[in-house]
Amino acid sequence: MSIRVVVAGSRGRMGQEAVKMVLADPELELVAEVGSPKSRGEEKGPNGVPFLTSLEEALITTKPDVLVDLTTPQAVKGNMELAILHGVRPVVGTTGLSAEEIQELDNLSQEKGIGAIIAPNFAIGAILMMKFAKEAARYMPHVEIIELHHDKKLDAPSGTAIKTAELIQQSRAEMKQGHPDEEEILDGARGAYYHGFRIHSVRLPGLVAHQEVLFGHVGQTLSIRHDSMNRESFMPGVNLAIKKVMGLTGLVYGLENVMD
Ligand code: NAP
Questions:
Q1: For the whole prediction, is pTM greater than 0.90?
Q2: Most buried in the list 52, 125, 134, 191, measured by CB within 10 Å?
């Protein structure tokens, strides 16, 4: 039996790719698309499935197994809560949720006995970049993260940068880097401070999603870089998460935790 999927944010850049991916997989069935409340609802979208502006209506009328959420930092928490309360498993790529919100959503999904996955980055190569960065930080604890994204991105730093920072923090003790007397001549010049190291966010047209983790040591540096050239790069990860979430109870944060 195929897995019934609703895509929220289906007219967005990521959402359109997710719709294509679901339609192309015979193991998945697209049952509804959901757009923002301000978008124009249509009885049927171009894919022949209902296009709704109310997620709740979509959940009630089409009874999906999985909600794929690729919306906005403002919408995602409410969408996830609604899905879990309706017994629908969220697979979430939308970034911008805080650690406290993720904990609350985990509690809710445990309470309701269903699975949920939040992946700040669905690109397999980005997962490897984070894994290698965590390993490198054990031996080269001086590190800075530079993440680069298109200029339509709403949150900074990116979810991937925060996740990478959390993994690095697990590998090294907190220590302040740079000169003890360093001074910012322009505010923000040294980037965001996280457990003693810095995260820099670049926003430019033409970029998709890129990150470099730079390590420094005596007489040497190490760069670990990942580039997503287009949004299709995230779709094998979304596909994997849809299939994995069916067998979970509680919230899993990070695609690496469901990769074999
Ligand atoms: P986007 O092009 O702006 O698309 C967002 C879509 O969500 C828009 O179509 C928007 O509709 C819709 N939307 C807003 N509120 C909604 C609601 N309440 N219910 C349903 N739909 C709603 O953004 P994007 O580039 O696709 O990115 C979407 C999210 O994915 C962002 O948080 C981004 O950071 C994240 N992302 C994650 C990954 C990953 O691998 N995890 C990779 C890339 C991006 P309107 O335009 O009508 O408001």
A1: no
A2: 52
Return mean pLDDT, the chain. Answer: 95
Q: Which of 77, 134, 149, 210 is catalytic?
A: 149
Where along the chain do its domains lie?
3-118+232-257, 124-229
C-alpha span between 128 and 57 (Å, rounded): 38
CATH 3.40.50.720 fits 3-118+232-257, yes or no: yes
Cβ distance 76 to 97 under 8 Å?
yes
Question: Which of the following CATH numbers is that of domain 124-229: 3.30.360.10, 3.30.300.30, 3.30.420.40, 3.10.129.10?
Answer: 3.30.360.10
Q: Please compute the mean of the pLDDT values over residues 177-200 and round it to a whole number.
A: 95
CA 69 to ligand 1 center in whole angstroms: 8
Residue that has been written with the tokens 């590998």 in this structure: 171
Residue nearest to atom 31 of ligand 1 (CA): 94
